[in-house]
Amino acid sequence: MGTLYLVRHGQASFGAENYDQLSARGHEQAVRLGEYWRERGMKFDAVIRGSLQRHAQTLEGICEGLQMQCDPLVTPALNEYESMALIEAIQPGPHPAADTPERYRQHFRLLCDALAQWMGGTITPRGMPSWSDFAGGVRGVLELVRERHANHNVLLVSSGGPIATAVGEVLSTPAEVMIALNMRVRNSAVSEFSISPKRLMLQTFNTLPHLDSEQHASWVTHA
After folding, report:
1. Residues 89 and 158 in one domain
2. Which of 127, 155, 183 finishes a domain?
3. CA–CA distance, 27 with 58 (Å, rounded to integer)
4. Could you give the angle at the alpha carbon of 54 between the alpha carbons of 85 and 203, nearest 5°?
5. What pLDDT score was predicted for residue 19?
6. Are 110 and 19 found together in one domain?
7. InterPro entries, per this entry (predicted)?
């Protein structure tokens, strides 16, 4: 039986003009995860990532830490939803930058509300697929892994939304649980599914074994 390791990207650039860019800390998180796996002799038979820049940069950091070449399958099915398109679908802008604790909380309150409406089919955010198509894309990647890699270790680098969707698909969770899971996925966190030809089974969710030391305690981030 193989294992699918789902990794959320390292810390990106929340609040900046271009969010889709790892911060210096995000790069450190990714490299440290690769180092952690290298120290334990981890090898991957297949690598899959989304097509966003933060996915590519995170995988580069992991492979740097692993000291291995990575030749990933790249698929937009693992890309994150558009947060601002969701928010603007329920509350048209302009929206002030989330540069204070209260504005940060307000941003995520609106986002959770918008996610629930998108998943319920009551809004269609501009430029985004339907929830059914978004979830179907994630489901397709999981099916590919199950069909082709039942006895392999597979590394998948994506974002919180697709990872929470994958967990929700495997566990058949309701929408509100999937949203709650999404909001809790930390940067560079690892979730694990065991892979058999018939099914995927959740083994761990949102773990940070590579940052489990006093030295790295300040490296734990969420955005």
Report:
1. no
2. 127
3. 7
4. 95
5. 83
6. no
7. His_Pase_superF_clade-1 (IPR013078), His_PPase_superfam (IPR029033), Mito_Ser/Thr_phosphatase (IPR051021)
Say which amino acid occupies 121: G
Give the amino acid at 83.
S
- The pLDDT of residue 13: 84
Give the CATH number of the domain where residue 15 resides: 3.40.50.1240
DSSP state letters, 62-103? HHHHHT-----EE-GGGPPP-HHHHHHHHS-S------SHHH
CB 55 within 8 A of CB 158: yes
Burial 183-206 (b: 16+ CB within 10 A, else e): eebbbbbbbebebeeeebeeeebb
Question: What's CA 26's distance to the chain center, in Å?
Answer: 13
Tens-digit pLDDT profile for residues 52-106: 999 999 999 999 999 999 999 999 999 999 999 999 999 998 888 887 888 889 9
Q: Is the pTM of this model over 0.90?
A: yes
Q: Is 109 annotated as a binding residue?
A: no
Domain shared by 61 and 9, yes or no: yes
The Cα–Cα gap between 193 and 166 comes to 10
Residues 6 or more apart whose Cβ sits within 8 Å of residue 13: 19, 20, 21, 22, 23
- If one counts the domains in the chain, the total is 2
For residue 120, the enclosing domain spans 82-127
What 3-state DSSP class applies to 48?
A: strand
Q: What is the pLDDT of residue 215?
A: 95
Dihedral, 220, 185, 189, 201 alpha carbons, nearest 10: 150
Q: What is the pLDDT of residues 8-26, one digit of tens each?
A: 999 998 766 688 999 999 9
Does residue 67 come out as left (phi exceeding 0), alpha (psi in the -120 to 50 range) or beta?
left
